[in-house]
Amino acid sequence: xxxxxxxxxxxxxxxxxxxxxxxxxxxxxxxxxxxxxxxxxxxxxxxxxxxxxxxxxxxxxxxxxxxxxxxxxxxxxxxxxxxxxxxxxxxxxxxxxxxxxxxxxxxxxxxxxxxxxxxxxxxxxxxxxxxxxxxxxxxxxxxxxxxxxxxxxxxxxxxxxxxxxxxxxxxxxxxxxxxxxxxxxxxxxxxxxxxxxxxxxxxxxxxxxxxxxxxxxxxxxxx
Length: 223
What we know:
Blueprint: H1 9-12, H2 16-21, H3 26-81, H4 85-158, H5 163-219
Helix pairs in contact: 3-4
Keywords: Coiled coil
Coiled coil: 27-54
Pfam family, one: PspA_IM30
């Protein structure tokens, strides 16, 4: 007899966390477990096929032996009808021998049939367990992928708001403030220079107005 999934049945019953603790890739390990189970099933199918073939062979030998028993009895009857008692006796003697062989073959056939039936049941159990494990594998695989994704997200988020990130933001903020201060200072300098030029320009304009005002007074005879 073979054991159900001798290589992987105990491992497949372990939880996902146990696999992670062993620093193994759960998805790859689960796929390997399924391949091992498939190999066990193929091995079991081969064993079942051989046992069924043995069962059929013994059944045929038993049937042939039983047929020969019936044949020898019919021959004995025919010999008696022909008045050949010696031939009838020889036929009955062989019939008895064939009966002993038939009984032996029957026992062997029944054992082979029982073994074949048992192996078939075991194979069906293996296939049922394989399908259950396949469903569990798909579930564990999804959980493993989800856990990996969460881990990546958590690691990425853990960097947000960290001391290093805060210091980096502070440095950038200082640079921005410095840029703003420089821009404001340059604007003040530009405004200062522009005001001085404007005063001189305004001074020139005032002279022109004074001249024009004097000319107007002269025309009006007020000067």
